[in-house]
Amino acid sequence: MQFVAFERAKQGTGASRRLRNTGRAPGIVFGGEAAPVTIELDHNALWHALKKETFHASILDMELAGKTHKVLLRDVQYHPYKPQVLHVDFQRVDEKTRLHKKVPLHFVNAENSEAVKTDKCVVNHVMTEIEVECLAMQLPEFIEVDLGNAKKGDTIHARDLVMPKGIKRVTHGRTNLTVATLVPPKVEEVVAAPVDAAPADDKKGKKKK
Fold first, then answer.
1. Which pLDDT tens digit goes with each residue over 149-174?
2. pLDDT exceeds 60 at position 203
3. Residue 17 belongs to what H/E stretch?
4. 4 and 24 in contact (C-beta within 8 Å)?
5. What class, spelled out in words, does domain 99-183 have in CATH?
């Protein structure tokens, strides 16, 4: 995915505020052998790009000063209530850069599994992304979670995921991280309403004529 950035001449809080008022978003690109460079981007283009999953979890081509740089989105600061990006950080990467990055999980084949197709289970997504370690150029856009063989009551753990070659999952020592569970459907118990007993004839209260 490609985007265009421009070198930013003025820095500081006031300059950034004025920049945002003109429809631009301030940012920085760092890493590699070159010094960090302050940049600015078209805010609307950046806002729409940030809605795309690939912009967050893949290597990007940043055009800056007539050159194309391989970068990775590292941080985004949003306004607390306005639909506005306050600042964005990118990291330069190359074939030697090794990194840790969270990538999204894509769940597939659930509808073909015994758990869902036959037993009508619900897939409970406990995790929607997972942290990986790899060379930057090997960074996957997503990790696939195949639920085709899932059965009722199954629990999918991080250790069960099939990782692409060269990709290492990072669990920070937690080997039993739950990715998803197959939850059986809730059975509503129908309780019959109590039937009132017919009142017995009260013969004691009757007087003989």
1. 999 999 999 999 999 999 999 988 88
2. no
3. helix 13-21
4. no
5. mainly beta
The encoded tokens of residue 135 equal 């060379």
Whether the CB-CB separation of 86 and 40 falls below 8 Å is answered with no
Q: What is the pTM of this model?
A: 0.78
E strands, the chain, in order = 2-7, 24-30, 37-42, 60-64, 67-78, 85-92, 98-108, 122-125, 129-135, 143-146, 155-157, 168-169, 178-183
Say which residue the tokens 């099939």 belong to.
162
Classify strands 37-42 and 67-78 as parallel, antiparallel or unpaired: unpaired
Per CATH, the number for 2-94 is 2.40.240.10
| Mean pLDDT along residues 13-39 | 88
The per-residue pLDDT for 89 is 96
Handedness of CA 118, 122, 126, 132 (dihedral sign): positive
Buried b (16+ CB within 10 A) or exposed e, 114-141: ebbeeeebebeeebeebebebebeebbe
